[in-house]
Amino acid sequence: MKQLIETIVKPLVDYPEEVHITTEESPNRIVYKLSVHPSDMGKVIGKQGRVAKAMRTIVYSAAGSHHKKKTYVDILD
Asked: CA 69, CA 19: separation in Å to the nearest integer?
């Protein structure tokens, strides 16, 4: 899933080398925490959160069949 998130985010940002994803896993859920350069934050979130929502939809559907756990994507500031 980390690779999928990177594939979605890196073409959107001006500083792709500063895209970092950490994973927190518990028995019933997985949280992917996305960190980008501060000037790229708006590009990742999008107008009214549309880009972030679309990214989450793709990751949730891919992870639902793969992990069998609830999956979350958090964008850190």
From this structure: 24
Options 3.30.230.10, 3.40.50.720, 3.30.300.20, 2.60.40.10; which CATH number does 2-70 get?
Answer: 3.30.300.20
Q: Are 55 and 21 in contact (CB under 8 A)?
A: no
Q: How far, in Å, CA of 71 to CA of 30, rounded? A: 5
To the nearest 10 degrees (0 to 180), the angle between helices 50-67 and 2-9 is 160
Give the span between the Cα atoms of 14 and 54, in whole angstroms. Answer: 20
Query: What distance in Å separates the CA atoms of residue 23 and residue 74, rounded to the nearest whole number?
Result: 10
If pLDDT is split at 50, 70 and 90, which confidence band does 44 have?
Answer: very high
Give 61-76 pLDDT, tens digit per residue: 888 777 778 899 999 9
